[in-house]
Amino acid sequence: MHLGHQQLLKQATAIKNVLNLTSMVFTFDYPPEQLFHKELRLITDFKTKQKLLLASGVDQVVWTEFDPEFAAIPAVEFVTDILLGELKAAAVVCGFNYRFGHRAEGNTELLRQLGEQHGFIVEVISPFLHNNQPVSSSRIRELIGEGNVEQAAELLGRFHSYHGTVVHGKKLGRELGFPTANTKIDPRLVLPQAGAYLTWCFLPDGSSYPAMTSVSPNGTVESYLFEFSGDLYGQTIEVCFLMKMRSWKEFSSIQSLKEQLSRDYEYAAAHIDNYRLQGQRIVLE
Q1: Which of 8, 22, 124, 246 is most buried, judged by most C-beta within 10 A?
Q2: Sequence spans of domains, the chain
Q3: What angle do CA 6, 11, 16 make, to 5 degrees?
Q4: Which of 94, 22, 18, 15 is nearest to 58 (CA)?
Q5: What architecture is domain 149-274?
Q6: pLDDT, tens digit, 9 for 90 and up, residues 106-132
Q7: H-state helical runs in 119-225
C-alpha cells in the first residue's frame, strides 16, 4: 500500500464521515496480474496488506480470489451484482486508472455513468505525484529489486519489511562471531537486490533490534541482530529494510568474509542513530 493508496483511503474516510457510512475496501488476495503473469512478484503478502489497510482507519476489508471465473464477470454485472448487490455500496472511491470487469472493459467513465444510473457516488482520485512522477506499485517493485529501499520507502510512506519464519541455516555466521537469523521469506515476494542492508527486526514478544541483513543472490535472508542473544528458531519475525550498505560480494576466504562483516557492523553502528523507534514503526530522524 503506497502513498497513492493512502490518499484514496483518506478520501474514502472523508466521504464516510460526511455521509455516516461504513468504509470498506474490496480487494483480492493476490493482484489480478498474477493470473496472467505468474512471474510477477508481490510487494507485500496478503496478511500484511490487511494489517496496513485496517491500520489506515478502514472499517472493513472484504476480499475474494481472482480466478478465471471472477475474471469472466462483465463490468456492468460486477457493479450491479457485487458492488451494489452484495456490498450495498453508496459511494465508490477509486484511482484514476481503475479498470474492472472481463478483459478490464470497465473504466472510471463507465463507473460514473453507472453511478448516475443507480444513484451512488463515484469519486475518482487523481495520480499521486512524488518528484513530479506518479507513484505506482510497478515503480516501487522496481526500486526494491534494484536495492533502492530508501526511495521505495519514500513512495510507500514507510520502510519496506518482510515477515518470515526463522529456520536453521549453515550456522557460518555463528562461527564468524555474527550469529544470524535465517528467515524464510514468501517466494512470491520481490526481494531487494543481493547485498548487505541496515535493517530493524521486530520479534513476536514485542521487542525489536537494529540489525544488518544479508540478501544473497539465491534469496537467502540472514539478519544479525545487535545486542541480541536468544533462540529465534521457529518464530516469525519482521525484517524492516532501512538502507543498502553495499552490494553482494564473493569472498576468497573465511577471514576476508569476517573482516567485511566487521566493517559492515561498524558502518551500520555509525548510521543506526539516524533512525528511531516510534511505537512499532521506524522513522528517519
Answers
A1: 8
A2: 3-130, 149-274
A3: 120
A4: 22
A5: Beta Barrel (2.40)
A6: 999 999 999 999 999 999 999 888 888
A7: 137-145, 149-156, 172-175
Residues 6+ away with beta carbon under 8 Å from 41:
141, 145, 188, 189, 190, 191
d(CA 177, CA 174): 5
39, pLDDT greater than 70: yes
Cα–Cα dist 100/36, whole Å = 15
Q: Which three cell numbers stand for residue 58?
A: 478502514
Site of grid cell 472511491 = 93
SS3 113: helix
pLDDT more than 70, % of the chain:
98
Is 4 in contact with 95 (CB distance < 8 Å)? Answer: yes
| CATH T-level fold of 3-130 | Rossmann fold (3.40.50)
Grid cell digits, residue 141: 517493485
Radius of gyration over alpha carbons of the chain, in Å? 22
pLDDT in tens, 189-205: 999 999 999 999 999 99
